[in-house]
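Re: the pair you flagged

First of the two:
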Amino acid sequence: MFIFDPRQDGKVCHKLIDILFIAVAATICGFSEWDDMATWAEYREEWLRKYLELPNGIPSYSTIRRVFDFIDPKQFEICFTEWMKEITQVKKGSIVAIDGKTMRGIADKGKDKRAVHIVNAWCSENKMVLGQVKTDDKSNEITAVPELLVMLFIKGCIVTVDALNTQKETVRKIVKEKKADYVVALKENHETLYNEVKDYFAEEEKTEIKNETIESYRTIEKGHGRIEERVYYYSTDIKWMDARRDWEKMNGIGMVIRRVEAKRNKTEERAFYFGSVETVGEYAQAVRKHWGVESLHWSLEVTFREDACKTRTGKAPENLAMLNRLALNMIRKDQEKYQKKSLRKRKTVALLDESYLDYILQINFGV
């Protein structure tokens, strides 16, 4: 797979690969606006020439911006996913959480410009983005998730989605086409099934869940003046459920009770799920690790300042989102030199120390 260059041959002064390389390296160093990328490149021209020909010097910021405004985001997404297949070993049983994030800074009410919504696939094992697709808004996630699944190599993994994306077509694609398992959230958007599962566990709670067919798993976490207890319940004894015929490989139903005690305040809430997994351990791990995708969203907002981005025209916002995820994965791949440093600090080191930037490129691309 390659990225098509839409520019006219006679008007091209800078190679596409040079512009892509500059944008990726600059993003690793903390620059996410086109003019900042161009300025960084001007001061790093000698270093860049170790990797690039740069026949006409450093491209201007307007050239970089125009190129990313022209590049087909779908091609960029597919190239990214293919690259992730090459460099990342996704182990059997890994949790792959699929969830969306909105780039709010792109919205412009005055020009009727909507925010861009990106659906990400996040591997908890490697803490890396495996792929992304763009939707026009939050409601279109339902059609975007199956599209994203097509691009992923997740055989043997456990896929998790929120209640919005608990859809029969999504579940079927996970099992039949991707040869993976799933644990999906259940809310009122599937009212009959939701009430059936909720009532089932409510009846069991009346007898303190002594039913031997229901497995349980409990975790307690303490810290920062807060105690959080989670109790996971999972039952595979569901022959009585008509819904098994409607949902591919539906093997069990689950409930999580989450109790939090902080500063003398206590809260308790319940959430419900169903899945194709066989054990409460797999179920608990899937539910718990699904929220790891929130750490991705936090990193994109805080470390890459994605919500502050004002790039709004054409295809550039979606391509810039891909650059951020590409840079995040590349930095995270460092598990030796600065494993204990935060992503933000690693970006700073890459900015100040060219040898570390060389190292990041080497472990990702072998250059």
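Second of the two:
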Amino acid sequence: MRAFVEIVGADHVLTDADLTASYETDWTGRFSGKAACVVRPRTTAEVAAVLKHCHAEGLKVVVQGGNTGLVGGGVPAGGEVLLSLARLTDLGDVDLASAQVTAGAGVTLADLQIHARASDLDFGVDLAARESATVGGLVATNAGGIRVLRYGSMRAQVMGLEAVLADGSVISRMAGLSKDGTGYDLAGLIAGSEGTLAVVTAARLKLWPRLRARAVALLAMDSTEAAVSLLPGLRASLPSLSAAELFYREGLALVRKHGPLPAPFPQEHEAYLLLECADLTDPVDQLAAAVSEAVGLVDATVATDAAGQRALWAYRETHTESISAEGVPVKLDVSVPTASLPLLVSQLSSTIAGVCPAARPIVFGHVNEGNLHVNVLDTGDLHEQVTDAVLRLVASLDGSISSEHGVGRAKVEWLQLSRSATEIAAMQAVKRALDPAGILNPGVLLP
């Protein structure tokens, strides 16, 4: 511990159980382990010195950002040094010429958004955990969120990275060049690697014009098929479309149970599609016109003012906290080809009931990407069986076992469902090249 104290100071090496506890259990409550200590560096140089020492001493390291992960990738399995990046909060001036900004790994998504909007720009990624999720974690997991339809996932926002390799050496490519044909895209490789290849300490990020004019519509649909069938027309007629979120009767009942939300419609319906448009000019008329022609539409409401828009978004964004208020769920983030989403939804309940009849599935997701968040309550001791059944169903539909949350520790056993043996061997070869001693996030992502 003395070496860590010399690097970051005594106040930032935590060993007392009362101080380390919040770092050792993930947001879901399902994954936890005891860290040898928690080390909280302030700069890239301190991160490099910590990793150099760990490499020399053969100490395993777990990397953590805002600890909002859902697959156990940022908490210790037992005995590792936990490297918290929460203090890497430097946030550079917005570069208006390139519409870019440099942000430290510990900068929260909410702070990044506020900073960009002060220059009349915005950040492309948004998600409900914006107050806690950090830039480093978003990069490490290639986070998606609610705006992928418009802007793409986190990897698409990264114009450059600063990262520390396992031996303490630093990679820094932060010029933010839009065109650079000088070999391998190391930033693209590190993004989505879940801390297994390098520790991201800062990122050069793309910003987008801030679109102040917004309109939000909540559509009651008679089926998942109707919601999916609506997408091609919406994309064609609404270039301003920035979000298309899907949830169901059971989820709506749960969020209303745990929050003061009125019923959005006089009657309950099978499926609900939340749409948001954002533009430089008011998109309300275009959204209303597109909605009025929707096949399978049962009812609809459009919000034009900020308060009304927040109220409609609450039906979708409070799903996660409402589910957690019921207990610790099995959380599965999956995707299938968008055309196969109705088939996945239709088979989920029977698949889960087949292994755990008492289970309660609550699902929602990003319909344009075929991405469904499957939350299963009341699984008892059968969480592994439920996970196996759902992921095998997804694989049978040519889907991915992880759409945007990562593989972490939770899904390593099922990686072969989404990746071939050749692909896994190639990823392991990259891991050995950059982290030959295997000290970074052991047990995460790769078998």
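The longest strand covers residues 199-209.

-B.
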